[in-house]
């Protein structure tokens, strides 16, 4: 189920790397020369302006992305962009106090109290209800998909017209998504949206995402550039990623991130693919994905990793 008007680019913008001074994208610290609140707000608005001018209309945030929701809400109100389609997530709380070197950046709690606190916080920051509202990184282990109180509250939001769903992370993404597809409240599944990691290194959720799409869900792809590992920055000296991606990008006359994003856009079940750009120039490079027509199959054969290996590497990425 598409969120976007016909003809709108299927690329969206995620604000995980823009709403707070620390994140785990490769080289993130160097992308943010001014890490004050006002400095990040200005940079976020510059990237948002670039996205809007390019026709992008889907924008993704979360309560745990520092001030991302506030930056996004202020931007769309100031610019008068009523056509922006907003998505956000609940379940993590930002606790780093604007410190890049914080020992803990976010705390996960998938309980009713957190949902009841964070939904109005999100609406206040954005200035309106979101079109999409997701459980942030739902897992089978968190128990959130078996929490009757949480599911009832989400079903109530769905009845009000919000597309509720979940985002997924970790090697068990497919299992978590299939469990969510089977959830029923009053005989009806309250969920109609999923945001999942899919990229050339970690495509293991692809079949389950196809099932969600076939069930009428909106499917949003995150981390298509693997937190920078599938960018020129990430490929330099990275022994576990063969040069095939850089070679493909050179042949096509684009940067590797554009090829990685194009591979995700080529998936028939992908309604929106998120760019995680931190700068206007990164976003402009990402936008080249919209014009590429290249099969991802050879790259998938060359680059796909075991899911557990991929997620172990991701967990070890430093915040900067």
UniProtKB/TrEMBL annotation:
Signal sequence: where? none
Q: What SUPFAM superfamilies does the record point to?
A: NAD(P)-linked oxidoreductase (SSF51430)
State what protein this is by name.
Aldo/keto reductase
Source species, domain of life: Bacteria
NADP-dependent oxidoreductase domain ranges (all copies): 42-294
Record Pfam families: Aldo_ket_red
| InterPro entries for this protein | AKR2_Oxidoreductase, NAD(P)_OxRdtase_dom_sf, NADP_OxRdtase_dom
């Amino acid at each position: 189920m598409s969120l976007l008007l016909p003809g709108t680019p299927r690329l969206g913008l995620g604000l995980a790397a823009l709403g707070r001074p620390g994140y785990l994208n490769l080289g993130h610290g160097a992308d943010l020369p001014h890490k004050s609140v006002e400095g990040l707000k200005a940079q976020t608005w510059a990237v948002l302006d670039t996205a809007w001018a390019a026709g992008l209309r889907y924008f993704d945030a979360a309560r745990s992305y520092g001030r991302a929701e506030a930056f996004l809400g202020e931007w769309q109100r100031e610019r008068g962009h009523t056509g922006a389609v907003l998505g956000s997530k609940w379940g993590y709380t930002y606790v780093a106090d604007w410190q890049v070197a914080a020992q803990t950046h976010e705390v996960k709690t998938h309980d009713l109290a957190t949902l009841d606190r964070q939904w109005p916080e999100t609406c206040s920051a954005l200035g309106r209800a979101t079109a999409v509202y997701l459980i942030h990184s739902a897992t089978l282990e968190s128990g959130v998909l078996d929490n009757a109180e949480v599911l009832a509250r989400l079903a109530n939001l769905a009845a009000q017209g919000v597309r509720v769903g979940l985002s997924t992370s970790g090697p068990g993404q497919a299992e978590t998504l299939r469990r969510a597809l089977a959830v029923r409240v009053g005989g009806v599944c309250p969920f109609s949206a999923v945001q999942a990691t899919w990229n050339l290194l970690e495509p293991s959720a692809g079949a389950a995402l196809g099932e969600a799409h076939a069930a009428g869900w909106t499917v949003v792809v995150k981390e298509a550039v693997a937190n920078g590992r599938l960018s020129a920055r990430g490929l330099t000296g990275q022994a576990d990623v063969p040069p095939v991606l850089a070679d493909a990008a050179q042949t096509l006359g684009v940067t590797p991130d554009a090829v990685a994003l194009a591979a995700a856009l080529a998936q028939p079940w992908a309604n929106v693919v998120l760019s995680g750009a931190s700068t206007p120039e990164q976003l402009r490079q990402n936008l080249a994905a919209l014009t590429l027509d290249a099969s991802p199959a050879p790259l998938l054969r060359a680059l796909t990793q075991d899911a557990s290996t991929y997620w172990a590497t991701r967990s070890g990425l430093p915040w900067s």
